[in-house]
Amino acid sequence: MPLRPLPLGSTKLSGGFWLDRQRTNRDTTIPAAAERLEEVGTLRNFRAAAGQEAAGFAGKLFADTDVYKWLEAVAWEQAREPSADLAGWQSGASALVAAAQEPDGYLNTHTRLALGGQRYGDLEKGHELYCAGHLLQAAVAQVRATGDRTLLDVACRFADHLCKTFGPGRLEGVDGHPLIEMALVDLYRETGTAAYLELASYFVEARGHGLLTPPGHHGPAYFQDHLPVRQVRTIAGHAVRALYLAAGATDVAVETSDAELLEALQTTWQTMVESQMYLTGGVGSRWYGEAFGDPFELPPDAAYCETCAAIAGVQWSWRLLLATGESKYADLIERTLYNAVISGVSLTGDRFFYVNTLKVRADAFADDQRSAVGGRQPWFGTACCPPNVMRTLSSLDQLVATSDDDGVQVQLYAPASVAADIPVGHVGFEVATEYPWHGTVRVRITSAPDEPWTLGLRIPAWADSHRVTINGFEGPLRRVWSVGDEVVLELPVAARRTRPDERIDSVRGCVAIERGPLVYCFEQQDADVVLDSAVVAAGELIEREQPELLGGVTTVEVPGRDGPLTAIPYYAWANRTVGTMTVWIREIA
What we know:
The chain is of the alpha+beta class. It is 35% helix and 16% strand.
């Protein structure tokens, strides 16, 4: 059964694991990005395009998107808790973006400053529509979060220009980097302008018809142009592009009631999860092309697992969760957020991973700025990942709960307040939990109508058992609720061994450690033996709560052939020193 997202502000994190990360994001990460965007010239590009400063273009040709994603994060933070600094950044940068827009609505500082205004001459590599997409998303976030229409007016003028430029009988082409598809649907949902949905549908359906000319060694699959979207069953090519396209296609399928397209996307998602995804929820097993590999091609040491790809995967799974109501999509959102997304930012909030490998060998060397061997970086030449993390963490409240005509569903477990209007009336409740470290989740009803409704509590796929009580007794979750009713969900958060599919030859004979939603890893500094040759054995997994370690974690001691080994949550690795690390480790009986 389809679900609905709750209106902005209906859910608010009130403590715990995720609020701690939101606070670091707000207090450290977003302000640091404001400095970086100035230092590397990204904001200067807009001033130059607006005629306010004489300067050439600085950075990558898609650098505009770094400002747009940062502005989106600022907007979501304004919705959470307004501040003078946030308001100043929002108004200043938004005015700058508006000033850089051209009279017919077009906006791209690279085209203006570096190409002499020549538009759409290189759809394969130019990223013009990709940049436009991030602008549209930032604009929708800003108006929803703050009511400020500055960016929305810019976005609508640009989208109107795109509608006049692209489509059957006009310029028939698609961007080499998808994103515009879901951005246009977002704008359609905000404005009700049907032309935006029609253009999004065109961009989705135009894929796989040879409109893109692959440059260099890349083939059409790199751009998701090898097959029409509704014929794809195994996802391929550049991982971020593929997942952004899938998310946009899902939006189109939902808004146009296209059951065939939605079913095809669900099949593709299932294939990806079963055979092309790492244990962390990360995707992209090839550095070349930043791409998906073949089914079961998942080498841990060569894993690319770009932070942006993990975030795009969350966006796609969220859309499929809403479209179908199936909890497996929320399961993957949880896995990806806890492991493949937040591994991309340091615990201090000021350094980032582009690539999230699952193994670093002894004496490895960093031959690329993106390599995890060099540790997290303060910024990147291609800086897509840092602001993507920012906007994800700032908007995380919106993923906590959903609703339908029957009630409200809790999708992510975190201390939070939730309020929703459903057909039978207004409901409200508070969630208290120490998840992911402990599996007790308490839900206390704070408001309820005099009619029955259902409180939905997701049982994660990793949980092999659970218990639910209402005011101390077992009973149905559909009922007439009273203020003060307390529901307690008990989940078995305990360390467990996970073994890989035998078809993944690179980790055959290995084991990984998981605990609740968290994937664990081993770092050399915690081992008395050489980690590259370490072997674990059967025996009890011993858990230890360590409030002073890595911001407060539970470690797991694993029996080893040459002595015990200590595992820490994967997201926290490389926050002390950077060295040998592995998620998968050899196992003997």
